[in-house]
Amino acid sequence: MNSGDENLRAVEFTVTGRVQGVGFRWFVLHTARKLGLRGYARNLPNGSVNVVAAGTRGAITRLHAALLEGPPLAHVKDVQAAEFTVLPELPAEFVVS
């Protein structure tokens, strides 16, 4: 990922609601890989899901929309997003951790 490309961005999302134990991370994995994103999704101790993703502006926007929807068994209450000012070191592909 070339940090000089203005079309690339990295965002950290925090998803709250009923998002653990309902296949949410696997939904994010499938969606992010389909969009060509790098990063990860992980459960947090407080019951939320943390998603860090990097890729094109359009792909990040589509991931954000998907996070708001979630998989069928999830109930998304809120999605907070914070954009990184510097692209972080991330896995070569999207992973669940």
Total count of strands? 5
Taking the sheet with the most strands, its summary is: 5 strands, mixed
Ends apart, CA distance between termini: 21 Å
- Helices, by number, come to 2
Mean pLDDT across every amino acid position? 93
CATH class: Alpha Beta
Query: Percent of residues in beta strands?
Result: 35-45%
What spatial form do the alpha-carbon principal axes imply? Answer: globular
Question: Could you say what the CATH topology is called?
Answer: Alpha-Beta Plaits
Radius of gyration: 12 Å
Low-confidence residue ranges: none
| CATH architecture assignment | 2-Layer Sandwich
Helix content: 10-25%
Q: Please identify the structural class as seen in this structure.
A: alpha+beta
Give the total of domains: 1
Please trace the helix and strand order, writing H or E for each element: EHEEHEE
Query: How are the strands of the biggest sheet laid out side by side?
Result: 4-1-3-2-5
Which helices and strands appear, and what pairs or packs with what?
Elements: E1 8-18, H1 24-34, E2 38-43, E3 49-56, H2 57-69, E4 75-83, E5 94-96
Characterization of this structure:
The chain has 97 residues and is α+β, with helices and mostly antiparallel strands. It has one domain: Alpha-Beta Plaits. Helix content is 25%, strand content 38%. It is built from two helices and five strands. It has helices spanning 24-34, 57-69, and strands at 8-18, 38-43, 49-56, 75-83, 94-96. The protein has a five-stranded mixed beta sheet, with helices on one face. A hairpin with a 5-residue loop joins strand 2 (38-43) and strand 3 (49-56). The longest helix has 13 residues, at 57-69. The chain is globular and about 35 Å long. The mean pLDDT is 93.
